[in-house]
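This week, think about what follows.
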Amino acid sequence: MKKIINTVALLFAGFALIGSAGAANDTSKADLKAARQTAADNYKAARMVCDGVAGNPKDVCIAQARAERVKLERQADATNKNTLSALTKSRKDIAAANYDVAKKQCNSRTGNERDVCVREAKAVLTGAVADADADRKVFNARVSARNDKASAIYKVEVEKCDALAGAARNDCVASVKQRFEGIAK
């Protein structure tokens, strides 16, 4: 369980860096298809390893193979789409896949120990989903704040242009508009 928690924490830290940098490059459809094919190939290879195991360890092995496939596919999708929404969905889907693995691991236990294990897994899932939503909200709030600040500065700059007259004023306003192009005014 701790291994899964550590893996999930590292994964989300990496996604947070990608999301905060906002610099993920768009990939071509060929790159996306190649990533999906790699995920499928890795899954098939992992499933072959799982076939040599029986009982609950086999269920855990299969769930881990699925989780790895989901992770690779969702990361490729998020990178390809390069949107905050895609990244958030990716993080939630990966958390759900990891939750499935954790539940399978809990099945080898009995009684209260199993109940505690399942609740821990659910708590990790809930935390991961909440973190994904919170990161999305924080990003949107920062974009909104940045736009509000830029809009206020734009208005100040245009007001400064009002001190000028004629062509100088028009040039000043045009210059300000060019600097603040694409920002809500």
